[in-house]
């Protein structure tokens, strides 16, 4: 097992009727900006509960954060904070709103061009405004990690940053707030969490017994509840399990001390930036192709995945590997998530543009071995057609 440091300061407040506990965790003297996405938080009553919990604190609101939060929109939030002297942020929504809030928190007092936060992937972030979150869409794990992905409309870029300064102080997770989500968003959440786990698990054997078993348990749980959580939107236990699994998938625990990949995500980001495909759906396109192209480098873990997750023990190694990859694709398809670029009307003509963007962003040596060159990324995209 590799050396590691594990640090996660985020307090989780989980369960029904927990939004009133905001009163205990937002400082009484705070001047708060509540950030949210569209109208659903208002329609389903979540914003009303948040307002009631914040009581007599000074509160301003900023809505309209996109599903792929944009630099342009978020800089308007930064301007509001600076103009009104606000000092605490509260994200109400899914991973996109929380990601956007992390960027805003880091950008308010940043010296220089705020887009440099993304260009340097957060390396020069020295501080951030404190913030918390109320999660309404389980998917990204942003409610308990220090990472964020932001898009820039003007340049069609989508970049990530991370910093220990942008861990949420707390996150409220009430599974009942997911009951009214559209089916597409719930399915995306399942696929997103599944791929987060795979990026940390399916690399090469590194002796992380607890991490492997933990990851495999999370994968098995998602496979079991994925179709059910869509079919039964008001089943509290199913929604509660999905919400907690998605958080555990990317709070740092299963990735501690083991190699990580993330090449699927980097290619997926470029597909979203260029073609506006939902983030989780780009992952479902890229992951099976990535596993096929890199099956030799990942052979040991692919065989473990085949046996422990899909119970595949018969046949040759190559047959078991191919069957495991096929079942992965079938799982995504069972959620009505296509796994081919062609399903989105995209063909070979899109590949050069994606490769060009990867090159522009320095994504030329990806993966756990840094051996995913631009040529390998091209083969992955060709395989995903």
Description:
It is a single chain. The chain has two domains: 168 residues, Rossmann fold (3-Layer(aba) Sandwich), CATH 3.40.50; 202 residues, Up-down Bundle (Dehydroquinate synthase-like, alpha domain), CATH 1.20.1090. It is 46% helix and 11% strand. The chain contains 15 helices and eight strands. The mean pLDDT is 97. It catalyses: a primary alcohol + NAD(+) = an aldehyde + NADH + H(+).
Question: Could you list some keywords that capture this structure?
Answer:
385 residues; 15 helices; alpha/beta; 6-stranded parallel beta sheet; Rossmann fold; 8 strands; single chain
- End-to-end Cα distance, whole Å, is 37 Å
What's the number of domains?
A: 2
CATH topology of the largest domain, which one? Dehydroquinate synthase-like, alpha domain
Secondary-structure content class:
alpha/beta
Overall outline: globular
CATH superfamily of the largest domain, by name, is Dehydroquinate synthase-like - alpha domain
Reported CATH architecture of the largest domain:
Up-down Bundle
Quickly describe the structure.
With 385 residues, the chain is an alpha/beta fold. It contains 15 helices and eight strands. Strand 6 and strand 7 form a beta hairpin.
Topology readout:
Layout: E1 11-14, H1 22-25, E2 31-36, H2 40-43, H3 46-54, E3 58-62, H4 71-84, E4 88-93, H5 95-107, H6 116-119, E5 131-135, E6 147-152, E7 157-162, E8 170-173, H7 183-201, H8 209-231, H9 236-248, H10 263-275, H11 279-293, H12 299-308, H13 317-334, H14 351-360, H15 374-383
Parallel strand pairs: 1-8, 2-3, 2-4, 4-5, 5-8
Antiparallel strand pairs: 6-7
Organism: Gluconacetobacter asukensis
InterPro entries: ADH_Fe/GldA (IPR001670), ADH_Fe_C (IPR056798), ADH_Fe_CS (IPR018211), BDH-like (IPR044731)
Domain Fe-containing alcohol dehydrogenase-like C-terminal: 188-363
